[in-house]
Amino acid sequence: MYHRKILSYVAIILISLIFASTAWAGNMQQSLLEKLPEPGEQLTRAEFVSMLVTAANIPVPAKTVYMPLDVSTGAWYAEDIKAALAAGIINHSSGDTIYPNEPITQAQAVALISRVLGLPGLEAPGPLPAPAPDHWAKIPYSWLIKEGILNTPISPEKVMTPIEGASLLNKVFGTSLEAEELYKKSQAAHTNIKTMRVTGNMIMSVEGNPNFSQAMPPETVQVRSNVTIEMNQEQGLSQKLIMNMSGLPEQTPPVEMEQYLLADGIHMKLKDPKTGAAQWVSVPSETDIKELLKQQSGTMQLPKELDKYFNYRLVGEKTIGDFTYYDLAFYGNIPSLATLVNLAGSPAGLAPELTDNMAKSMDMVNGISMVGRTLIDKKSYLTNNISAFTVINFKETFEDETNPYKTLMNSFNFTYKDYNSVIEVKLPPDAIAEQ
């Protein structure tokens, strides 16, 4: 059973790696203000929720939604409250009320926006351009500050005005249509790519569960990886990986791996960290490698099927050397591992034993949050860089036992280059000699 559980954790880590592969103002602010029938000096909770539902394009559900006692079915904002309740953005209080006419504070507005974006439930990694306030809303504040959505002064208990609420929502959602259109153009540009190189790094941290009563795993285990990938659609894909682990009871030497994904299967060169001896291992594969690589080269952003779980923002433009790029941000929360696997399909190339454990891995995860940025060349629409931070939250128990782990955090930064250049992906002589 222990071996099977370890494989389940490995499957989750591999899935997280697979997906590793407000300067511009929109016209939204005025339209949001026009939605309020009689705006006053203070913005009410119902008014902000109504504007938020409109800004984020949250649909009104067809199903019946139990409404709070203090929301009249004839209220102008009733349908927006229904949409927010169905989406889990707001909840009934213990008295079955939501206090729609109470003024909304900046902290309350920040928390609601965070729920819509699906931001992680832990503080944003630093450094931040400004400190997050020591407040119950510190976590969502940290993310909006890090993303440049909120600037100083930060005033959590300040009651917002209608203009302030509409301006904040415009910064978050005002460029979503432009951003989505740029993503589509980039997707189309990548369908013509036959070869490319990818270089980057990943930092993966696993946090232990303090409620785990058995021999405690380390509080935090961290894996730092440097990756180099070369792809040729007609030949295959090669990958070189160097991993350094920390946080374990004993110091672990770096792990080096070389991998080739070719038509005849997967070939891996593993080096013994103690002796330095290397050995090639080959695994046959029934996967259509050419079709897989074609899909990969055409999916440099998030898969289209995941769009409904994500929001997009056009941050602005960024010039690096002689090139100018669109700077796009994306935010989302995938409700379960099962949702991700069903939408993306089983990851090609995994060993059958790992694939079989995917179903069991799904029972381990509560949700997956992701925050990221993409740089897209302004002329070619090809991706230059993708960086993201993901958090996988584990359930408290797994297979009737307390789960030893609480969260898995993964940050990555990949640079894409040498599109359609001459790249040969072939097994090296020493690998051929061992076959």
Task: Please tell me about this protein's structure.
This protein has 435 residues and is of the alpha+beta class. It has two domains: 2-22 and 180-257 and 286-434, outer membrane lipoprotein receptor (LolB), chain A (Clam); 28-175, no CATH class. Helices cover 29% and strands 29% of the residues. It contains 13 helices and 13 strands. It has helices at 2-18, 28-35, 45-55, 78-86, 106-117, 138-146, 162-173, 176-190, 289-297, 337-344, 352-356, 358-362, 429-434; strands at 195-208, 220-232, 236-246, 255-262, 265-271, 278-283, 310-320, 323-334, 365-377, 383-394, 397-398, 401-402, 405-417. The strands form two sheets. Strands 6-5-4-3-2-1-13-10-9-8-7 form an eleven-stranded antiparallel β-sheet. The two termini are 33 Å apart.
CATH topology (fold) name of the largest domain? outer membrane lipoprotein receptor (LolB), chain A
The CATH architecture designation of the largest domain is Clam
Name the helicity range. 25-40%
Q: Average the pLDDT over all residues and give the rounded result.
A: 83
CATH class group of the largest domain? Mainly Beta
Number of E strands: 13
Assign an overall shape.
globular
> What Rg is obtained from the alpha carbons, in whole angstroms?
24 Å
What is the ordering of alpha helices and beta strands? Answer: HHHHHHHHEEEEEEHEEHHHEEEEEH
Structural class by sheet pairing and helices: alpha+beta
How many structurally independent domains? 2
Q: Assess the beta-strand content as a share of residues.
A: 25-35%
Strand order of the largest sheet: 6-5-4-3-2-1-13-10-9-8-7
Uncertain spans: 1-15, 17-26, 345-355
Biggest sheet layout:
11 strands, antiparallel
First-last Cα distance: 33 Å
